[in-house]
Structures are given as structure tokens and as C-alpha cells.
């Protein structure tokens, strides 16, 4: 189904396969799991819409919701789509400060939460609705016959998603049903799901990947396992029980699965049904691709996306190992990528791109392209290689140093499980290169000399070598796609003396 609103797509799928499983709520025990069909999604979402309408939620009004990854959350979001409300999802990891900013900046009329906790926010002007109780019941309920007509214009802004702020507050990204449906359709075309596939959502549904993935499920008619809390090895039982074939989220998810695989005896597969890991949101070291394919026994496709454009590029499962390991895939039809010759900032234009930012000047250039703040290059075959962030370019003694380049080489050291490279203020150099590493269990103690020797052995230029090494038990990560929070590392280690001062 090519056009229409998100609610149109819900109805289309419900008519085609009403009894097919749509969502499975994962739990530690099979007794506690729940599921809903595509027909059930439509029927129950419409009743929830009627219940919210009776509580005063009108078409066009703004609703902020902060809800965990549950079937009930999907129902609430689809109900708001049926009403034509403007919804602004907030990931559960946001605290009172960030949520207060969202409520003030959106001027939300309603704030939906799962239960009575945290209802004492002094800066809240919105009416609070307990969308459901903590046991998963108590959804608003009403008579669908009393609802106004569903929205008809798929190009109206009815979604506000939030970028993860670091030094500044989060930015509200304005989306339409059309932009989110386009992204989900492109994801489906890239991953090529089979009728027998079972997907999984281990990331917060409030992330922009939530509707992106949901659109793919609706278009293809396949189910997905929902996990309110993703943790390994605890979540593996649900993956095995339901035969999940499509999993992923981001680079951190790949490494978590890989670490669990390495705890098993040789020849035993961690997830027997798994055929494809897919994701994006963070750089992927080329070596990680080959490790996943060899050890997990599945394909790995990595892509590039951002809140402003939930689908920019994605690896093709049938592409060459070289392209899958070293690039972020190719853009779908309609997505235009503009980069200055060589390596430069990535600019985007296309129907999956957002409509700008809430309360901020138009970010687009005269040709309608959006700057991303990411750096990359295009190969002769049209594959995108993302080389880092503008702010991840470390300027040391006037020379540009790519943090991502060093991270990918560090990952190849046997005593490094993960790494983040940051630039820290330095009076003599302008910035110094600091490597922050996480080690696997049983690894030998790392030294700066050993790390530099490893990097030199792989051909890294001497002026790019780290001058500071920090070993941490775990890199700080965000609550959505588990991206490394580099700003926290800069704040933590910025005052530390450089471990090597001669370069």
C-alpha cells in the first residue's frame, strides 16, 4: 500500500490478515506473555481512541507520552494516529528535567504515563492521563461510533520526536505520517522480510524506530517480539521461544549477542532461528561484520539513519561481504544524498526527511537539503561510508584526526571489547586524543604503549596516536539504541593529565 495515513495502513493490514499475529509481548516466563493480531490492533486501538476522545483528546491537539515498550503503548500510539492528534513520544530514560522541557516546548494539552508515579512535576501544565496501569490493563475505552472521522492528510505534521541532547537540550523533530510511512516502506524493501519471519523490538518504542519498524510489520504482515527491557542473557529465552529471525538495533546490540555466543561451547548456536541482524544508529567496525557472520551464523546488514530521517541507507543482505563490512549501504529510491567531493558533511533530501525542528528556524538550504552534522563519502557504486561526526573530528596541532578511524582499529585488538575516542582540551595541542576502552572478561591489562603499538602495527599515522588511555568497566550508553555518550566521557576525563606528553 503506497499512500495514505498510518491509520489507513492499519486498516489495510487488518482487512488482509485479521487473525495473523502482529505483536508478542515478551516475558521471562511463557505464562506471562501476551499477543495481539492485526485485526485486534485495529479494533482495540479504535476503542482506545474513543476512550481518549471522551477524556478530551481532540484532533490536532498535542499529546506527550512517556510509556514503556508494550503492546498497550503501540495501541495508544495508533489510537492517537486514529484521532489525528499530534503526538510527541518521549523515551522512558528521559528524566524530569528533559520531560519538563518537552512539555513546555510542545505546549502539550495532555501527558500520558503508565501509572501514578512521577505526577508531581511542578512545571507541568498538561492534563495527565494514566494511559494504563503498571500491570498492563486499564486502557482508556470508548465507543468507536462516537469518534470523529479519521485524519485524511498524510502530509500534516503529527509527530514530534526528540534528538538526544548532549551539551544542549533535545531538539523536537517534526514528522508526518507520510515521512514515517516512507521510512518504514524503505526498511521493508531493504531487509526483504519473508512471510515466515519473526521480528523483534528490543529498543524503546518511543524512539523514532518504533513507527519505522511498525510500518514494516504492517506492510509485510509479520509479527514482532516486544521487549520492555532488553538484557542478555535474560532476553534470550523469549527470542528462542518465538523463533526470532530478524534482530538488531545498533552496533551495541551486535556486540552483546556476540559476547553471549562466545560463552557457549563450540558448535552451539546462540539463536538457532536467527538469520539477520540489522540496525544502525552508531558506527560499525568492519571487523565486527566478519565476526558476527562467522560466529553467530547469520547475516549482518548495517544502515545509516537519524531521528530526522529514520531511513537513509541500509545494507542489502545479498550485497558483497566487502560492501556489507565497510559501508552503510545504499539509499533507497527517492532519498538524495549530497556530499562535497571526497569526504564532507552529509546532506539529505527526500520524502522520509523531517519537516524541520519545533520552534527553530528552517534548517534546509535553498535546494531543500538538510545538513546532518555527520561526515561521509560515497563510493563509485553509490554506497555510503559514514566516517564520523563533525564534532568527532579532533583537531590536534592543526591536523584533523577521525575518532571513528581509531575506534575501528582499536576494536581489532584482542583485549578491547569496545572503544570510544574523544578529543580533550589541551593547552599545547589544542586537543589531545584520548582512547576510552572497555575490556572483555579475562583480558590482559592494557597500557598506552601497547595500544599505540597495536595502532602503529595496523598502519595508523603517528600523529593520530592517542596520548591518553582510560579503561572503564562499561562505556556510558543512552537508553534507546545504546549509543556511547561521549559528552559524559569528555566531562569525566577532560581534566585528567595526558598520559603521554611528548607528541
Automatic annotation (TrEMBL):
Q: Does the keyword Transferase apply?
A: no
Tell me one GO molecular function of this protein: ligase activity
Q: Which residues form the signal peptide?
A: none
Q: Give all residue intervals belonging to the AMP-dependent synthetase/ligase domain.
A: 12-358
Where does the AMP-binding enzyme C-terminal domain lie?
405-477
KW Ligase (keyword) present: yes
> Mind listing the UniProt keywords for this protein, alphabetically?
Ligase
Q: Which family does it belong to?
A: Belongs to the ATP-dependent AMP-binding enzyme family.
Question: Mind telling me what this protein is named?
Answer: Cyclohexanecarboxylate-CoA ligase
Record organism: Streptomyces nigrescens
Amino acid at each position: 500500500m503506497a499512500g495514505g495515513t498510518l491509520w489507513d495502513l492499519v486498516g489495510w493490514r487488518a482487512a488482509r490478515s485479521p487473525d495473523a499475529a502482529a505483536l508478542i509481548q515478551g516475558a521471562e516466563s511463557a505464562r506471562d506473555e501476551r499477543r495481539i493480531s492485526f485485526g485486534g490492533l485495529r479494533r482495540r486501538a479504535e476503542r482506545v481512541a474513543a476512550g481518549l476522545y471522551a477524556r478530551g483528546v481532540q484532533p490536532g491537539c498535542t499529546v506527550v507520552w512517556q510509556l514503556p515498550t508494550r503492546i498497550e503503548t503501540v495501541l495508544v500510539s495508533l489510537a492517537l494516529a486514529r484521532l489525528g492528534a499530534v503526538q510527541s513520544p518521549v523515551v522512558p530514560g528521559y528524566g524530569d528535567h528533559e520531560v519538563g522541557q518537552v512539555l513546555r516546548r510542545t505546549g502539550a494539552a495532555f501527558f500520558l504515563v503508565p501509572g501514578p508515579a512521577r505526577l508531581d512535576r511542578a512545571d507541568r501544565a498538561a492534563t495527565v492521563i494514566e494511559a494504563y496501569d503498571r500491570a498492563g490493563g486499564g486502557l482508556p475505552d470508548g465507543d468507536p461510533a462516537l469518534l470523529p472521522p479519521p485524519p485524511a492528510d498524510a502530509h500534516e505534521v503529527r509527530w514530534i520526536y526528540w534528538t538526544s541532547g548532549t551539551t544542549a537540550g533535545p531538539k523536537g523533530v517534526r514528522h508526518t505520517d507520510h515521512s514515517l510511512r516512507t521510512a518504514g516502506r524503505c526498511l521493508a524493501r531493504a531487509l526483504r522480510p519473508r512471510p515466515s519471519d519473526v521480528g523483534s523490538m528490543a529498543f524503546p518504542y518511543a524512539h523514532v524506530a518504533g513507527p519505522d519498524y511498525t510500518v514494516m510489520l504492517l506492510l509485510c504482515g509479520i509479527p514482532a517480539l516486544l521487549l520492555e527491557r532488553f538484557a542478555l542473557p535474560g532476553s534470550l529465552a523469549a527470542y528462542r521461544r518465538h523463533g526470532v529471525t530478524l534482530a538488531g538495533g545498533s552496533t551495541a546490540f551486535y556486540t552483546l549477542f556476540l559476547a553471549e555466543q562466545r560463552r557457549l561451547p563450540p558448535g552451539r548456536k546462540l539463536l538457532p532461528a536467527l538469520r539477520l541482524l540489522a540496525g544502525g544508529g552508531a558506527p560499525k567496525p568492519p571487523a565486527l561484520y566478519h565476526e558476527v557472520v562467522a560466529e553467530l551464523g547469520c547475516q549482518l546488514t548495517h544502515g545509516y539513519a537519524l531521528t530526522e530521517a529514520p531511513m537513509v541507507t541500509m545494507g542489502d543482505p545479498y550485497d558483497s561481504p566487502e560492501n556489507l563490512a565497510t559501508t552503510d549501504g545504499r539509499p533507497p529510491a527517492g532519498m538524495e544524498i549530497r556530499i562535497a567531493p571526497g569526504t564532507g558533511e552529509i546532506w539529505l533530501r527526500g520524502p522520509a526527511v523531517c519537516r524541520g525542528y519545533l520552534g527553530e528556524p528552517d534548517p534546509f538550504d535553498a535546494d531543500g537539503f538538510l545538513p546532518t552534522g555527520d561526515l561521509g563519502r560515497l563510493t563509485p557504486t553509490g554506497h555510503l561510508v559514514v566516517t564520523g561526526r563533525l564534532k568527532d573530528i579532533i583537531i590536534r596541532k592543526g591536523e584533523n584526526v577521525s575518532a571513528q578511524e581509531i575506534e575501528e582499529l582499536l576494536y581489532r585488538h584482542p583485549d578491547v571489547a569496545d572503544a570510544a575516542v574523544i578529543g580533550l582540551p589541551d593547552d599545547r595541542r589544542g586537543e589531545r586524543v584520548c582512547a576510552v576502552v572497555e575490556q572483555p572478561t579475562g583480558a590482559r591489562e592494557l597500557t598506552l604503549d601497547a595500544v599505540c603499538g597495536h595502532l602503529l602495527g595496523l598502519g595508523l599515522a603517528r600523529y593520530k596516536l592517542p596520548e591518553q588511555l582510560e579503561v572503564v568497566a562499561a562505556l556510558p550508553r543512552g537508553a534507546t539504541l545504546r549509543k556511547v555518550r561521549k559528552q559524559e566521557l569528555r566531562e569525566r576525563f577532560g581534566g585528567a593529565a595526558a598520559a603521554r606528553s611528548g607528541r
